[in-house]
Amino acid sequence: MDIFSKCHDFTRAKMAKAMGYYPYFIPFDDTEGTEVIINGQRKIMIGSNNYLGLTTHPKVREAALQAIKKYGTSCTGSRFMNGTLSLHEELERRLARFVGKEAALVFSTGMQTNLGTISALVGRDDVAITDKEDHASIIDGCRLSYGTMKRFRHNDVKNLEAVLKTIPEDSGKLVIVDGVYSMGGDLAPLPEMIEVCQKYGARLMVDDAHGIGTVGNMRGTSVHFGVTDQVDLIMSTFSKSFASLGGFIAGDEPIIHYIQHHARALLFSASIPPSNAAAALAALDIMESEPERFERLQQIAQKMRDGYRSLGFDIGNTATPIIPIIIRDEMRTLEMWKQLYEAGVYTNCVIPPGVSPGMSLLRTSYMATHTDEQMDRVLETFAVVGKKVGVI
């Protein structure tokens, strides 16, 4: 058997391209955030994670440019050896204070943050317990560890407890959940989860990649629920509200110190470039000084949730600017995506294995910089296309 046989046998994506139903890896010619240009055509972007609209903010751009002028384009080394700048440490101090923890540690990407943190903490006799809808980076972090992984039904606290009951008392236990789920836009019930974790001696880690900037006055799910002191570890990424690239883990200083010296994804990866660190710092400055961005984002999210529901779309249990349009049928989802795209609205098409079978959806998400006119046009387009495709 030739190991490359599977590559030659993989024809699904090429067939979809030939049929005009391939919604992935589409290159943008230009973007200003709320709109993108593709093949000379302007489209309203409702598929971005740029929740606060900071990727084109003048202060963020200028901070990145100045960092390049001062430090160059790369640190060319790992944090462990020669890739730590005072800029990285300043960012870590600011992030820890922002999320209400003693210390923070910056990784090169959000994916690496979860890979490094989980694999460093979960050892041979330990158990990682994950929600069935946790992000792939969490699952892969568990797989890289030497421990055991168990899963519980999405946001089902009773099922979480049932799983914890099966784990020996002398095993280390780390429960890992998304604060805001990236596909459904729903929140993890942290207060109830904390009660169960404490009952069984489990620690709790919250991936707030989609929570920072969108809930809890931009400080995330733990602040939203008022339980920051009871969440052991808070993770987030810079590639969403922070308008940059990278990620961080925050918690008590001894835990972060341990991760710093044991996370292979940190020790053996080049550190984030100065421009990315500076951009994240500038975004943090804006988040702290411009609360009106958060308020505007909430207004837009509520407008769109109300609008979709009034049109008859199924948007699940979302409570955030992430609003799924749940269609279920895979081919109908692709058709809906294609017709919206041709009508000038860019969404994300999510089909299995990105979601469970029978749960195909369009993932839409919104920015503080979207205008009411843009949102009205989006709802009008969804109404026309939804009826044409037979979704509503």
Task: Name its key features.
392 residues; alpha/beta; Aspartate Aminotransferase, domain 1; Aspartate Aminotransferase, domain 2; 7-stranded mixed β-sheet; 4-stranded mixed β-sheet; 43% helix
Overview of the molecule:
There is one protein chain. The protein is an alpha/beta fold and 392 residues long. The chain has two domains: 12-45 and 291-389, Aspartate Aminotransferase, domain 1 (Alpha-Beta Complex); 58-289, Aspartate Aminotransferase, domain 2 (3-Layer(aba) Sandwich), CATH 3.40.640. The chain has helices spanning 5-9, 12-19, 58-71, 86-99, 110-121, 136-144, 157-165, 190-199, 221-225, 253-262, 264-267, 274-289, 292-311, 330-342, 372-389; strands at 30-31, 35-38, 41-45, 103-107, 127-131, 148-152, 173-178, 203-207, 233-237, 247-251, 322-328, 345-346, 348-350, 360-365. Strands 4-10-9-8-7-5-6 form a seven-stranded mixed beta sheet, with helices on both faces. A four-stranded mixed beta sheet has the order 1-2-3-12. Helix 3 packs antiparallel against helix 12 (274-289). It is globular and about 55 Å long. 49% of the residues are buried. The model has no long low-confidence stretch (mean pLDDT 96).
